[in-house]
Design a protein that fits this description.
This protein has 472 residues and is of the alpha/beta class. It has two domains: 17-114 and 268-471, 3-Layer(aba) Sandwich (Aminopeptidase); 116-251, Aminopeptidase i, Domain 2. It has helices spanning 6-13, 29-45, 49-62, 189-192, 222-235, 270-284, 315-325, 334-343, 394-406, 428-432, 457-471, and strands at 66-67, 81-86, 90-95, 105-111, 116-127, 130-138, 151-158, 164-169, 179-180, 207-210, 245-251, 256-258, 264-267, 292-298, 345-348, 352-353, 375-378, 382-383, 411-414, 423-424, 437-442, 444-445, 453-456. The strands form five sheets. Strands 1-2-3-14-4-15-21-17-19 form a nine-stranded mixed beta sheet, sandwiched between helices. It has a seven-stranded antiparallel beta sheet with strand order 8-7-11-5-6-10-9. Strands 12-13-23 form a three-stranded antiparallel beta sheet. A hairpin with a 3-residue loop joins strand 2 and strand 3. The longest helix is centred in the first third of the chain and has 17 residues, at 29-45. The radius of gyration is 24 Å and the shape is globular.
């Protein structure tokens, strides 16, 4: 057996891969806590993709960003700050770098939609002297988690004359809330015997919204029509206006500290706003980057990044095309855009599943995400045999690893669960298809996709620092 001296032992210890708990990393506890307080307040105001974009515009304009589509100039100079909003549900922000955009940009991209229950286009009905809204769940959820909890109604209704009415009911302590009812255990024998994914039928998960009738007993559907009368009084709408609406049911509770030590945040929608918010704050604090810095906040990730506000849209390419055109002294061509994309680098700012000791066997512990270990780096996503994956190159992973090490930002390498247990995807694949070097870098979550997801405040702060140094 080989004997080693104490000096040799120290040298050998340096050969092993080690992770660091963020609380031990040297970050000031006050900075961690202060950042999370602002994050919680933002979460409470931004429970939908529209609300996140709306609040982001307010913050960006306070920090000097200008709407690129309303500029009076055709040229952008280093240090200029611009943004674009697409359909009120996707947002791009940029700080112009010293190098022209054709030499590549640095992107941090997150999504701002979250699992929820959408209201169907023709939703309102009464049954047994109660009034309900029919729903259609959005994204990957466990349906049982959404019954018998208080829900708030957020969104917009577009009236026949084109007027847009904003709806936000259930957040103020004096507001009513709504709920999807559940069956009492005394009568749930058949429900107990069903598989979990069969015990709750999606078509039966309708939201209870009223039970008082109009006084005139001769009126048909007087319970439903009482609700219509209230909606007309408050919003000036008729039932047909609900067809041209986007209404979402989300948990009515606010973001809260979790634990006696207040070390964690519990809230709805942290997938992926726990990464989108740090990305937004990071871009607003960039002042003089070498390469143009871009924050990309997308919609529809939870249903495949589809549509004109998802990552599969042309929004990012169009934005980079405009940046190229406005930083090249009029020598624009499509080739500049292709060159810019192929030279660009991106952190796909999305969450990972944190290892939960209550559910052993769901992860490979050597490659799992952990609460408190800092930034979770996911080289590849996908499921099982990497199906549907974006698989970052070893060279780009090393760039990110080196950047974080040089700036003393704790990180750990992860996968999204054990190989044959499932998996998932992010916007990374769509951006990689454009030729961009991209890797997933984000916050580990417990109870992901539930109405109350859990994140470590230390990880949130570490992730913000990572995005900042990458864009800088």
């Amino acid at each position: 057996m080989r004997k080693v001296s104490s000096d040799q032992k120290n040298n050998i210890d340096q050969l092993t891969y080690k992770t660091t708990n963020v609380w031990d990393s040297g970050f000031a506890k006050k900075d961690i806590m202060d950042f999370s307080e602002k994050y919680k307040l933002f979460l409470d105001k931004a429970k939908t993709e529209r609300e996140f974009v709306k609040e982001s515009v307010i913050l960006a304009e306070q920090k000097g960003f200008k709407n690129i589509d309303e500029l009076d100039v055709s040229k952008l100079n280093p240090g200029d700050k611009v943004y674009r909003v697409v359909k009120n549900k996707l947002m791009l922000l940029a700080v112009i770098g010293k190098k022209p955009a054709e030499e590549g940009v640095r992107i941090v991209g997150a999504h701002v939609d979250a699992p929820r229950f959408d209201i169907k286009p023709n939703p309102l009905y009464e049954s047994t002297d109660m009034v309900f809204l029919k729903t259609h769940y959005y994204g990957g959820i466990k349906k049982y988690q959404w019954v018998a909890i208080p829900l708030a109604l957020h969104g917009v209704i577009v009236k026949a004359d084109g007027t847009v009415v904003e709806v936000n009911v259930g957040e103020d302590e004096n507001d009513p809330v709504f709920t999807i009812t559940d069956l009492l255990p005394h009568l749930a024998k058949d429900q107990y015997e069903k598989k979990l994914n069969e015990a709750f039928k999606a078509e039966d998960m309708n939201a209870l919204i009223g039970s008082e009738p109009l006084e005139d007993k001769d009126i048909k559907e007087r319970f439903k029509k009482n609700i219509l009368a209230l909606l007309n009084q408050k919003y000036g709408i008729v039932e047909e206006d609900l067809i041209s609406s986007e209404l979402e049911l989300v948990p009515a509770f606010k973001a809260r500290d979790v634990g006696f030590d207040r070390s964690m945040v519990g809230a709805y929608g942290q997938d992926d706003r726990v990464c989108a918010y740090p990305a937004l704050i990071a871009i607003t604090e960039i002042t003089d980057p070498e390469y143009t810095a871009v924050c990309y906040l997308t919609d529809k990730e939870e249903i495949g990044s589809v549509g004109n506000t998802g990552a599969e849209s042309m929004a990012l390419e169009n934005f980079i095309a405009d940046l190229c055109a406005m930083t090249t002294n009029g020598q624009y061509s499509d080739r500049l855009v292709r060159n810019s994309l192929s030279r660009s680098k991106m952190l796909s700012a999305d969450v990972n599943a944190a290892f939960d000791p209550n559910y052993e066997g769901t992860h490979d512990k050597m490659n799992a995400g952990y609460l408190g270990k800092g930034v979770a780096i996911l080289k590849y996503s996908g499921s099982r045999g990497k199906s549907g994956a974006s698989d970052a190159s070893a060279e780009f992973l090393n760039e990110v690893r080196r950047l974080l090490n040089e700036n003393n930002i704790p990180w750990h390498i992860t996968e999204l669960g054990a190989v044959d247990k499932g998996g998932g995807g992010t916007i990374a694949m769509m951006i990689a298809n454009l030729g961009v070097d991209v890797i997933d870098v984000g916050v580990p979550l417990l109870s992901m996709h539930s109405p109350f997801e859990i994140a470590s405040k230390a990880d949130i702060y570490a992730t913000y620092k990572a995005y900042h140094v990458f864009l800088k």
